[in-house]
Amino acid sequence: MLEIACFEVTSAETACQSMADRIEFCDNQELGGTTPDFYEFLHLKRNYKMPVYVMIRPKGGPFFYSEDEFVQMKNSIITFKEGGADGFVFGVLTSDNEIDVVRNKELLELAGETPCTFHRAFDRTADLEKSIQTLIKLGFKTVLTSGGKPTAMEGKEMLKTLIEKYSDQIEILIGGGVRSKNILELKKFTGGKSFHSSAIKDYDTFVTDDEIKKLKLLSS
Fold first, then answer.
1. Which Gene3D superfamilies has this protein been placed in (predicted)?
2. Domain with 165 in it: what CATH number?
3. HEC states along the chain?
4. How many domains in the chain?
5. Residue pLDDT tens, the chain, 220 long
6. Model's pTM, two decimal places?
């Protein structure tokens, strides 16, 4: 499974016409991804068959949100769900960087049957095994992780552990610097089957079809 992170509609259209299995659609790459424009999302849904998972994140920075920001997240899920979102990507932490069970549960309930991914806020938590057990109990279908390190290559030992212990209970989506130059090593070392990449080559700005095809070929 190959998911491509798309931070603007041009890259999303490239990915939708390429060999990806789904896209994660968001805005503001420099902030690590925030909630995208609703009308750009509708454009993708009306013109392409590619599954679109929507980032629900009102701001960059820490994954602890004010009450107003949390209301924004709830409203976004309602809006994008009505627009036909195929999945949601979010993650709420407490002020001490632990999984916020109450708030995440509330968002999951709003999403209903729409599958949800807990994003790399997961890597901020102190005990990844404890955290993944919490996500499984809450009902997340997927967790996006680099194994608690800045990149997946740096976190590959933990990724291997998580995949061996928990991949039968939750999809472990390997992300964080995943490119065609390292995806084969990550696959072989960790045993992972699901990968997340922006498919942006060094010194480039947009997703490239060539990189997506290489990633898909090497991950299959």
1. Copper homeostasis (CutC) domain (3.20.20.380)
2. 3.20.20.380
3. CEEEEECCHHHHHHHHCCCCCEEEECECHHHCCECCCHHHHHHHHHHCCCCEEEECCCCCCCCCCCHHHHHHHHHHHHHHHHCCCCEEEECCECCCCCECHHHHHHHHHHHCCCCEEECHHHHHCCCHHHHHHHHHHHCCCEEEECCCCCCCCCCHHHHHHHHHHHCCCCEEEECCCCCCCCHHHHHHHHCCCEEEECCCCCCCCCCCHHHHHHHHHHHC
4. 1
5. 999 999 999 999 999 999 999 999 999 887 778 999 999 999 999 999 999 999 999 998 899 999 999 999 999 999 999 999 999 999 999 999 999 999 999 999 999 999 999 999 999 999 999 999 999 999 999 999 999 999 999 999 999 999 999 999 999 999 999 999 999 999 999 999 999 999 887 766 788 899 999 999 998 8
6. 0.95
